Amino acid sequence: MGFGVVSLLNAMFRRMFTSAGLRPSSATVDVDADTTIHFWAHRSLLPSSSSTATATEQQQQRRPVLVLVHGFGPGPTWQWAAQVGPLSRHFDLVVPTLLFFGASRTRATARSEASQAAAVAALLTGGHLPGLGSGRHVVHLVGASYGGIVTYHLARALLRGGGGDVAVGKVALCDSDVTKGPEDDRALAARGGVEEVTELKLPADTKMMRRLTKLSFHRPPMYLPECIARDLLRKSLEDRREDKIELIKGMTTAEGSQLTPLPLETLIIWGEFDQIFPLEKAYKVKEKLGEKATVKVIPNSGHLPSQEEPKVFNRVLLEFLLQPSDSNGCATDVAAAAVK
């Protein structure tokens, strides 16, 4: 049955997260707006049930933190399952569930990638992750598709706010068109054969979901039984659909009018055959983000190289993150001054 397959996959992806040392949790990051973020984080970052670890031991256990921000589609456990294992060998991971996805919620009226970034920034800097306290902690940021657009704003929010115990490290944007404007939406709608891009990005039936899948993957699944497609749509894509439509309509990156260079080392990863955001957009993003940005193309992949070519994607990402920074330890302070 479709129910069994989707539930089994969900359990398998969650198991991959727990095997990487991550645990699910939640935090109310804005009491007035009743804003609650659900997230996965490495157990070392969460409140400890044991008081036996000394401050010295905690300091010795400290590793850089890596934040993974998901895009539209199924939840973060589905989107980052192939990454959490390899990445967790080098970093303590934080994987938030963005507002209006899963159980993350708010009563605030804002519907933009900037408001999403503000909520994640509050999670990182508001004392909700005790393992991030006691001295500055290097935090790298990675986002895919819509999550990459949120990540751009998250980096700037952390830099503007000084970051507290968070020292922003490197940034990776994966198939994320932060320069997207109305003409890009019209072109995507035309490729998908729809009037409005929201019809494609937020499919209301399995026919549209299959059309989106075909555009998203260079090598889409050859066969997906209808019962499984219906169950996947019901469990992963239909929830909070109206709020997600408002997120798409509320994006502030139109024509790059709000975009300024990012004063951090930034890797732009792009699928060679991306039909959602075509490859030429990667170089436009690089041009806008400035001299610290570089482009890496993942061959034989579409809009989701992290899923189509996970080994290549993970290698490219790790090479970038593990390479010594080309700037000194005061880079975050210098970058913060640059955005104020």
From TrEMBL:
The name this protein goes by in its record: AB hydrolase-1 domain-containing protein
GO molecular function: catalytic activity
Protein origin, superkingdom: Eukaryota
Organism the protein comes from: Digitaria exilis
Residues covered by the AB hydrolase-1 domain: 66-315
A Pfam cross-reference name: Abhydrolase_6
